[in-house]
Amino acid sequence: MSPVIPLLLVLGLATVGWLVARARARIFRRARPGGRLDSRPQYHAWFVALCAGLPAGLFALAWSAFSPGLVVMRVLQAPAAAALPAEGILRDAILAEAGALATRHATGAFHPLARTLVPAFEQAIAHYAQVGLAVTLLLGFATGTWAFLRLRPDFRARTQVERMIMAALLLASLAAILTTFGIFASLLAETWRFFRFVPPGDFLFGNHWSPDPMADVGPVATDSYGALPLFWGTFAIGVVIAMLVAIPLGLMSAIHLTQYASPALRRWVKPMLEMLAGVPTVVYGYFAALTVAPAVRRLGEALGLANPSSESALAAGLVMGIMIIPFVSSMADDAIAAVPAEMRDGSLALGATRFETIHRVLIPAALPGIVAGIMLAISRAIGETMIVVMAAGATARLTANPFESMTTVTFQIVAMLTGEGSFDHPATLSAFALGMVLFLVTLALNFVALRVVLRFRQAYD
Amino acid sequence: MTTYHELDPVEAKIAARDVSVFYGDQQALDRVSIDIGTEYVTAFIGPSGCGKSTLLRTFNRMNDTIANARVEGEVRLDGVDIYRSDLDVVQLRARVGMVFQKPNPFPKSIYENVAYGPRIHGLAVNRTELDAIVERSLRRAGLWDEVKDRLSDSGTALSGGQQQRLCIARAIAVDPEVILMDEPCSALDPIATARIEELIGELKGRYAIVIVTHSMQQAARVSQRTAFFHLGRMVEYGKTSDIFTNPREERTKDYITGRYG
Prior knowledge:
The structure holds two protein chains of two kinds. Chain A is mostly helical. In chain A, 75% of the residues lie in helices and 0% in strands. Chain A is built from 15 helices and no strands. Chain A has helices at 4-31, 41-76, 89-102, 112-150, 157-197, 200-205, 228-260, 263-276, 281-302, 313-338, 341-349, 354-383, 386-391, 409-417, 426-460. In chain A, helix 1 runs antiparallel to helix 2 and helix 11 (341-349) runs antiparallel to helix 12. The two termini of chain A are 54 Å apart. A six-stranded mixed sheet of chain B has the order 6-7-8-3-9-10, sandwiched between helices. Chain B is 35% helix and 26% strand. Chain B has a single domain (14-256), classed as P-loop containing nucleotide triphosphate hydrolases (Rossmann fold, 3-Layer(aba) Sandwich), CATH 3.40.50. In chain B, helix 3 packs across helix 4, helix 4 crosses helix 6 and helix 6 packs parallel to helix 7. Chain B has helices at residues 52-58, 89-95, 110-121, 127-140, 144-147, 160-173, 190-203, 216-222, 240-245, 250-256, and strands at residues 12-23, 26-37, 41-45, 69-77, 80-81, 96-99, 178-182, 208-212, 225-230, 233-239. Chain B is of the alpha/beta class. Chain B starts with 11 loop residues before the first strand and ends in a 5-residue tail after the last helix. Chain B is globular. Chain B: It holds the Pfam family ABC_tran. Chain B: This is Phosphate ABC transporter ATP-binding protein. Chain B: Keywords: ATP-binding, Nucleotide-binding, Phosphate transport, Transport.
């Protein structure tokens, strides 16, 4: 049910409350000897408007979310519903069709029963729309009146409005956190369903990965859900190869930018480096697939490897490393710049060269920040999808040869979810278990990294 | 007008001639000439922004680390111009040590703080020699008895006064000829300050010491020569006792008596 009309009415109510409250506060002000109120009339106005509008508005939104359920419950009590099949997909499908017909979202139905339910649906929708509207307006009016009656010349409307604003800001910051919990909860439910088919031990430690989305679900299938090759592929590409590229280059560019570059150069290079972080990863993916992967294959041929793959862990890892450079260098840059200048001067004054100062004093002092940056970069790299989809290949294998194709957790999530298997097939569900592992690992990395940064900050404040 | 008390040239460890320093367009020091002797503690006094720290930092070329700082004139150490283009600034700073306003131990152990200089200059061939240098330096800085049982603790965990003495030990460890001190007590409490002043007295004669200070009492207590700076110029330079009891310049007298600054 659309909440638009109730919300517009609530807005109107709040506006009326605003005007009336301001008028009332102005009357208070005129009656006062000094002509001054504790709070300006605008605050009285906002207090009443917010009191009238917020609870009612929230109720209207909640009602639009809950009323469809109520509508279905009412429809099921209608005589026409007796003809419905008892349980299962067909029953749900007929109800959904009838609902679509009643709200004019559809013009025809596959099942004849759906048509017979339309009148019941229409009646129920109209009923709950009226109830919702009435309750919304009554609520708005009640809270608005209550607020209006609280107005006095010495009423501290300013404090109250401040409090409401604070609550709104708190709610906004909670939204992101609650969403994270929501993601976790939904992953948890699907992961649980997957683990009913495949035991967690087989999944986490099995070394054979070849789920068949078309196969019948049976005990035979469980030994093809060993995710170890995926974890290995993710580790090899995102941690080993990418970090071999990103750590030296990122660190050296940070050292150059903080210690050697002239301010003018720094002004140019730093934003350009940070712009690398804004390049869409799909573009890196093209680059990896079309430019780097063939080059890596030619290198493999030149090294005398038989049949080097056109998709390789090395190609994906190299490009991922380049993508990650700005993360490492930006954090390392901040960490090195945060080391007090006296530390550097102390070392220079002892006759240390610039490089001795950097590697014996500045980097050790900045190490926590640098490590934190690397950990954030790793968590970013193992979650990266497009590059590996385009350049790493789909073959799950446990190999130490970087010229061979490997596959990663993220790649398999994409492959399983976009595959042809039904939604409750273990192959599809495995995507959620993989996502859960990825979520937990990156969460842990970020958590540790942030703790390290926090401790580092305290050390120099 | 620049007035300075020129010592016998043979005695001068550091001789500055017409030194001017610019930070960008801003002139911080205007044609200062001064001779620094070996057997004294020399104090630079004057109000904030008078150029005393700037002059100090020309003696070991620490102004080099400040972007767009420019030095004109001549500074000679044992008769050799330290602003010559072929001069190795690393060698210069090994000979001219520095202690800063804020204690700045490295985030390393006490031992490693002191061993840092000897290590980078290769002063010890083995661990025994390095141990000996560390102990001698800490003893001279009057810190040995307080830290000998916890040499592996972090230098930053010491108290402010101990940290500053650690920094002095660190400077002594490379066996410099001159020690520059840039307001070494300004971040310390009176007791720690007294301890540092006492230490300066003990180090006198072994090293040429130049100390920049805000406190005229401190200059009077620790130094034998005092130079008074004002607005980037050196107003007067002479024996500390003369400067404080019988200044030749009106401005010096005003500053000493607390009329400004």
